């Protein structure tokens, strides 16, 4: 259970890190959308391993093969099935974890839950699964583009190197100009240095991604439980390694703010507000202003340092990371965050079509 | 849409702040649970308005009436229908907002989404709806008690008064000894002072609640999208005024932490870890350690200061809060946060029953 | 579980036959619908007990009280909560079934499933629950009316008295002119006689209802599993006592028909077909022609004759029906069948809003 | 939408008749089930085209490739992704239907719903999709086998050749001894003759399948909307060409039966009833007796006779079936019916795990 997301635009994924392939089914994509396959691949390329010196060196082309739901380049309204082959899996790197539980990994929890687990590369718990999200995310970004909505994410923190600037003061077109995907080029350099230094130490480090959606009209999102930000939050928290989520409030601390300081006052009939501490959402429904939020990632659990752990028999053993891993996930997670935002927004958009009689 | 939560244990709520009643239906409650009705009412009392000098003075007994699903004091497995009457609604206090959009309220967004809104007391967007969550939450806390799981929340910040102590170093039995529901009595005094001062200024202030679940066995939570913390996060973010969510990591900053510092190492066969930065969840599945998270609330939007806004015709008008409002919501939100945690955990618990053949 | 129906327009019901009240929540009703409350009550009156000499004599006013989701007579898009009080429950009539399992009733199955049951009046398994469906059904009929869709049901068989005429050759405006709700007045008389005779014998008898939906445009219904007729069929089969369902094919036997005889040929651009054996649905999607189907009801299980059964201890006991029961349910089931058709169609209608980009 | 079935054990399918492949994802399969892959293939072989002289001659090996969710031969609890390649698609046979709407096919309805359709082989509306159901069905049959539940279907009517014998008087082990899958060998011969004769005439004919589930314990199925027979009925009605469904009542007509004739009296503590008109279900919940139902199939719409139809421009054209088609679908539909029964039962079984506290 739990491998689907979305109520109307629904993505279901399958696949393990070292199985034959990963893939998914998109059900609920409206018919008649002309797909730009290059753009889909481009988003996959931004997520794929081995793309630069600061990412894991596993080599995957991450080529998506569409099997259905598309006819003469357009969506037909029927489910879009797709697969991505696992090409460079090195399962041998994982025989040493077959009988042990790596720290802060899902080895123990899968073992306890299911009584059986595919230990190779973390199996289903591997972030490799997120490639499927990017496929669906790229399609939803194309749906959003037809109505003028754009989703852009960028790295806003790596370790203690923090951007500390609101997105409104940044030139997001610079995001792709550097390996770490931070629109402030000088800060980006510091981030890259931090990642390289951390990697040399055999360690890993956390980070943060900010994501902005512009052009969202008022009226998306449902009261009470499916508030737009609650669904966005769930989407983000479902990404591997994410531990924190905040929407709106810019550089301001939520808890210590005062009503008189953070109330957003509407200044014209379009619903535009003077400030945007609300992050474009009030009462769980979009208000026509920019939607933005921050997503905090913990450091990757696999480190190249020795750790003393226990095995399935409760015996103490020493472990040291093998395989190819990222020292910091945020540069590759940028398209994943964009995808979860786009997926959630499209679902909200489609749901909003029945607001009124 | 969006008025239900839970996949197996499902709560659906209805009701506006100033309608005849609010209420809900719980579908999926296992049969044979002997209910302690006093405990349910006690949780409602912790949430209800007018309970102390630092809360709104609206007077509601918040008495729940159960209409079905219970026979001779026990649940029967059939849906539990319930209502709570609205007794002290003063709709006149809201005639001035009929044609205006209050800052940082849901007036504008409901107007845009539905083209019609019950403006009295915020209608459906009122936090009054959360009383229904507390009814269901109190029932789920009783389900959890049968298997040794306990959920406790407390206020960890009011404005800049921050507890800054991990729950493991607190005596949570002290939470109810003060009006603000903070287990550190000295800090609680500062919080109360802050709320009173803020109220005098006609202003409002944000805050933070920490919630802890003990006794959760390993194996609850579903990969991939319905990760336990993603569902908990969604539940929390669906509470009125919540803008931020973080799980695990105690007083440590997520993004700037290193793998070598925050990896949780299992130290015995029960799965107990030396540290618990993971917050009791790995790969979206509980690992048998305490689950804990922090929930950040923005300040209440209704302030007793003048604000210049626009009305439905785009004309500028001056508004000043009327009615009875909280200067800070966190003291009353403690049982709501507990409820969302308990609801999510029970749903995960019931889902976990099909893990294995 | 299982107390909700509909994906977008969702009805959830609660309540036992002899509890304080039954009721429900409608989530997903579009905003801005002006409700005709008299029409809702009129549908309830067609279903309510005690309406004529051929129905059970239990007296219920079946007055619905709406608690939310309606403002100044219009739907607001928020959930519509409602209750119907149980006024004339005579629980004493059921003390004799407390420890026995009545034949062809749900006593045994509830007992086995839940280990506890509210035996009074059949508890949750009572057809009293269907009053809630009629409330929602009457609302959906009003939604359908705004787009020219009409749903009409009538009794087409009582015991061996069978109408044997296609609806196209009947004047459906005559349905309400007689107690049994059959548009052929002469046949109706025979049906009434049959019911009265059966009642005198202390027996019960089955029957059949035909339902027709006119004005449904092409394009409603979803491939593959949620085919329009599959969802209609599920809705009908979920009505108490229904054992059979057939759509299309008029008086023709499905299995023995030949392709050359029953193929429906489109004769103009509106999609109109020369014949309509398909019952207005092809590939699970409406084709613009009339939708019609037949629903077969078994005889009521409670008979006023002695039957030898076993009790919870396996001991043989003799039972004879007490309480007030229908000798044939179909006259009262007509608005229920209409309701399930209307509910399913509205859900399909709302889902169809996202067919195309 | 609508491409998933099941609440806990959920199958989602994708794929068109002439696309690269069809396939699906099973989410919610319990971990630890040792799969018998030969049995899965055997069920696919019973459904596949080209298996005998009375089926379509399209040649498909219908080999299923599993991509995930299985490790060392056992299910892992993670989603099972699978594909089946389309090998013998002859799309040229369909160029003549590109701009026409075949009678009683889904051409027109897909065109109206989506504005675009993959016309080759009927696209998504092709019964080829049901191969995916058989994959999942075969897995669920293996789950059921672990708890002693068996599902068996057989052909009970072809045209006017009707078995007219209750399953209790048949030897179901004879079902596979003849091409038409009827356990009465003499009747089977008549059925085969009928199909061959019909085929020679370029015509098609309807039929009926009966399915029996033995060993189902009491307590499966949910009141009120998700009654066990309502979910079974929906599953059956979602199979291509199915127009009718009946559960219980054997050879007896539902509507004309009397309560005194068809009431099922429990005769011992196991819940066994003297008769079984209820078809093993009371109040929507299994009662421990055999579950059985009948499913009626209309004749295949593609006939080899000339029919005058209209094209997309409303012009009259003459059409005659091309391609390779069945004259009667029921022999190949037997494993499909079994699959839908097994899928529904497993979902009900898993849901029943939370009946009691």
What does this structure look like?
Four copies of one chain form a homotetramer. With 357 residues, the first copy, chain A, is an alpha+beta fold. The first copy, chain A, has one domain (4-353): Chorismate synthase AroC (Chorismate synthase, AroC fold). Chain A has helices spanning 37-47, 107-114, 130-145, 185-200, 228-237, 259-262, 330-352; strands at residues 4-5, 10-14, 21-27, 64-66, 70-71, 74-75, 80-85, 150-158, 161-162, 207-214, 242-247, 281-282, 285-286, 291-297, 307-310, 316-319. In chain A, strands 1-2-3-7-4 form a five-stranded antiparallel sheet, with helices on one face. In chain A, β8 (150-158) and β9 (161-162) form a beta hairpin. The two termini of chain A are 34 Å apart. Chains in contact: A-B, A-C, A-D, B-C, B-D, C-D. Chains B and C meet through β2, β3 and β7 of B and β2, β3, β6 and β7 of C. β11 of chain A pairs antiparallel with β11 (242-247) of chain B, so a sheet runs across the interface.
């Amino acid at each position: 259970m739990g491998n689907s997301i979305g109520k109307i635009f629904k993505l279901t994924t399958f696949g393990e890190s070292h199985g034959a392939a990963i893939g998914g089914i998109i059900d609920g994509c409206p018919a008649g959308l002309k797909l730009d396959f290059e753009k889909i691949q481009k988003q996959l390329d931004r997520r794929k391993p081995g793309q630069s010196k600061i990412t894991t060196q596993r080599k995957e082309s991450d080529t998506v093969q569409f099997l259905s739901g598309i006819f003469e380049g357009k969506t037909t309204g029927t489910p879009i099935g797709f697969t991505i082959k696992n090409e460079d899996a090195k399962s041998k790197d994982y025989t040493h974890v077959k009988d042990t539980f790596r720290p802060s990994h899902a080895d123990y929890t899968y073992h306890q839950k299911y009584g059986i687990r595919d230990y190779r590369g973390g199996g289903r718990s591997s972030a490799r699964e997120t490639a499927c999200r990017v496929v669906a995310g790229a399609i939803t970004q194309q749906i959003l583009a037809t109505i003028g909505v754009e989703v852009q994410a960028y790295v806003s923190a790596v370790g203690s190197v923090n951007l500390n600037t609101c997105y409104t003061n940044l030139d997001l077109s610079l995001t792709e100009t550097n390996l770490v995907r931070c629109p402030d080029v000088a800060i980006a350099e510091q981030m890259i240095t931090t990642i390289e230094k951390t990697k040399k130490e055999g360690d890993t480090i956390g980070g943060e991604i900010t994501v902005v959606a512009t052009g969202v009209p008022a009226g998306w999102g449902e009261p009470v439980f499916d508030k737009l930000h609650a669904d966005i939050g769930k989407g983000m928290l479902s990404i591997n390694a994410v531990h924190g989520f905040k929407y709106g409030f810019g550089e301001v601390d939520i808890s210590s703010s005062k009503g008189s300081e953070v109330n957003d006052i509407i200044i014209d009939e379009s619903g535009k507000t003077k400030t945007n501490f609300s992050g474009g959402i009030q009462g769980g429904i979009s208000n026509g202003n920019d939607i933005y939020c921050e997503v905090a990632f913990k450091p990757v659990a696999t480190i190249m340092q020795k750790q003393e752990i226990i095995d399935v028999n409760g015996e103490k053993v020493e472990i040291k990371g093998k395989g190819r891993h990222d020292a910091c996930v945020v540069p590759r997670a940028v398209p994943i965050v964009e995808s979860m935002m786009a997926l959630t927004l499209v679902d909200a958009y489609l749901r909003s079509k029945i607001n009124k009689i």
